[in-house]
Design goal:
alpha+beta, 3-stranded antiparallel β-sheet, globular
């Protein structure tokens, strides 16, 4: 069974290849388990996302999860709106 190895601030994790998953903020693909390099287009997209910084909505979602606050029905909508603000090098900028 092939796995995809991901690494981020939370440490390393493995997901089964072929099953849909989401990258967590700051997370990147270490090994695709397919015996070759990962798709260069995906690497470029990941580099661009890292350069833009972390979304404020992702940060709030991560903090509420750490503190054990259960998400409500409007949490995803709030996260998307707040993600228009980005944190990059401890500066908050607004997406255009």
């Amino acid at each position: 069974m092939n796995t995809v190895i991901l690494e981020g601030p939370q440490g390393r994790r493995e997901v089964i290849s072929g099953i849909r998953y989401h990258l967590l903020p700051g997370e990147r693909v270490i090994d695709s388990g397919e015996g070759g390099d990962t798709n260069p287009d995906n690497k470029k997209l990941q580099e661009m996302a890292n350069a833009q910084g972390m979304g404020v909505g992702d940060l709030v979602a991560k903090l509420t999860k750490v503190f054990g606050i259960k998400p409500c029905a409007s949490c995803e909508q709030r996260r998307r709106v707040l993600n228009k603000l980005r944190i990059n090098n401890w500066k908050i900028t607004k997406e255009k």
